[in-house]
Specification:
alpha/beta, Rossmann fold, N-(1-d-carboxylethyl)-l-norvaline Dehydrogenase, domain 2, Thrombin, subunit H, 3 domains, six-stranded antiparallel barrel, 16 helices, elongated, NADP binding
Amino acid sequence: MTTIGFIGLGTMGKPMAANLLKKGFEVVVYNRSVDKAQDLAALGAEIAASPAGAARGADVVITMLSTDQVVLDAVFGENGIVHGLRPGQTVIDCSTVSPETSRKLYDELATHLVDFLDAPVTGSQPAAESGTLVFMVGGQEEVLEQRRPVFEAMGAKIMYMGPSGSGSYTKLAHNTMVGINALALMEGLSIAAKAGLAPEQFLDVVQAGAANSRQAEMKGPKILQRDFSSQFSLQWMLKDLLLAGKVADSFQMPAPMLHSATDIFQMGLARGLGEHDLSSIIQCYEEWMHLQVQATTKGTPEQEAAERRRNARVRLNIKLHLSVYQWEQEGSFSGQLIEGTLVDLSESGIRILSSFPLARDMFIVIHFPQEADLPPVTARIIRIDQDQDQFLYGCMLSGLPPYVRLKIEEYIRSKSE
């Protein structure tokens, strides 16, 4: 019987090791937090005191860890796997790491006459529990075929992708799409909710149409039920996107959607959502539009009053400078700097008071006070109300990156408290 050393018993690793035990493999487990191993011990696992101890008597060693450095430490550290290996063993890394790390492990372990496969997974926690993971495998194909029964105990589909590093490349490209698809779902839900549509009905339309995706099927219901318990955490989604960004940079390849998705998940991490499910990023959209996305149920009077307060305009008196550019002749503009006052803000735009006459549909550049540490912001005048010699301009902000809107909201909140 093949003996497995399993290192890393987190959200994914623990159910993967449990499935190996249920399929009759002898399993020796190691985890830095020993308490996570107790349930597996009840299923028949032996608990090792170190990665080297888990590897010493094993035929196959599986790692399922968080980051490149954690994997490298588990393999090459003071009590790492390398100190318990012998020729003929196979190490399978199911972590999501950089292709460079995978190739380094392959090369280093080859000097010990040990085979290595990079075999990250997709399917998240439910698939790990049901044994229906998809493995993307890089390395020698004959080694994969030799160890196929081990993979089949944990997954429903095992895909050979090519030489060492190919599994890691596949996973990063795949998770680039996961992150972008998740945000596409949330932006669509946000637009629908802001338009007054029932989010659950909109989700039914999505799932019946061309916009459907696994993210819509898996994360849509979690969002509507406000269930942000982690199946795949926001912080690990961000980690994968950052790794994918480095790969794209190494190819000198523009990846605008990848970089935009990375920025938004970084905002979620800054809000303290890192340990929640990646679907919790909807809370960023909710803050931007001052509306919660959830299944439509009538709220209590207190909840409805709170919603009205969130949608009310905030009265302000913030001095601004405005750059105004006017067309003079072909290829020529003239510009001047005028004074204005930011008097209120809502989710739909801002209003600025000035004694300087401007025209509807004119674009202006808003300069906030130096203390705000904000870049100049472009706005379009969409409404003008005049009171004697004062003009109140309703302005729509144009092409505003989410992180700038966030900084504006934070600054205005500090001035209104």
